[in-house]
Amino acid sequence: PAPAAFWIAFSPGGRRIYVPSEADRLTVLDAATGEQIQAIDGLGGTLDGLAVSPDGRLLALCQKVGQEKLTVRSAEDLRELWQVPSFTERCAAFSPDGQWIATGDRDGAVSLYQTATQGRVRRKLHGHGATVTGVSFHPDGSRLASSSRDGQVKVWDWKAEIELLTLPLPGGIGAWHVAWSPDGSMIAAAGEDGIVGLWRVK
Question: Is the pLDDT score of 31 beyond 90?
Fold first, then answer.
């Protein structure tokens, strides 16, 4: 049987599909035919999160077993460009301008890495009481939403490192993922109980 794949992402133009797996393998598929274009193995641990930059040039990969790190690779040929130690939990997101990568961490923090400095310039958002399971930038890049196993969704002014809102899931159920609507007027979060929470935000 094929190794489990925990994440999948299209390129911005929809021509490629990127599939990281638990078997140290990153596969690129042709979206039109399903044929494999490229694959690399031996990446040193489970690949459990993936984001594609808005311009389609970069991939951000979360690795949480073995060598725990955030790795940035070329989307064209999959070569590694840079990496930083990380305690991320299966989620990453690029800012709309592609200048920052956000990750959700097991210590309850959201980490942000500047792409132009290869992650050397960083920011940290503290507020969750458990693992952060999802991160999502507002379409205009001004805010960031995060979900956590503590049963809360938080909205941040991430540039000022200020928490703006806390949105609890009913019953305190842990949240698995979070996303903004395309117009930025709503936030959706998937709960561990299979229920999706929706909030209208300004």
Answer: yes
